[in-house]
Amino acid sequence: MWTKLVLTTQDARHIMNAARVEATRRRLEVSIAVVDDAGILILLERLEGARLHTPDAATLKARTAAIARTTTATLQGQVSTNPALLSFPGRMPLSGGVPLVFQEHIVGGVGSSGAQPDEDEAVCQAALVALRELPING
């Protein structure tokens, strides 16, 4: 048996806040999702002005990053040589999803949708920085 690191709701709120601050600083109209390591939604926020499709897209990007254990930008780059990546249900290999890695363990994923790819990535990177600030509890 081994101990597994998991995101708490409080952790997800801290991560979401950092992502929201970055999106607001950049004046982005995005949705942001935080999922656990199985891709199950913990938090979702649609910022003012974000388009209607963005909550679903952000959630799918976060889920894809957590399950695939890599960024969705990396997967997007692989689609041209491996189109089968598009056939997995419930996945979205488009830039804007980043796995949440804490002490070399995937504890979840974060996704942003509604901005340009590099801007969505920046929102996710802000969340990743916030994750690394968290203490280990319990």
From TrEMBL:
Q: Which domain of life is it from?
A: Bacteria
Q: Which residues form the signal peptide?
A: none
Q: Which Gene3D superfamilies match?
A: Haem-degrading domain
Any Pfam family matching the protein: HbpS-like
This one is known as Heme-binding protein
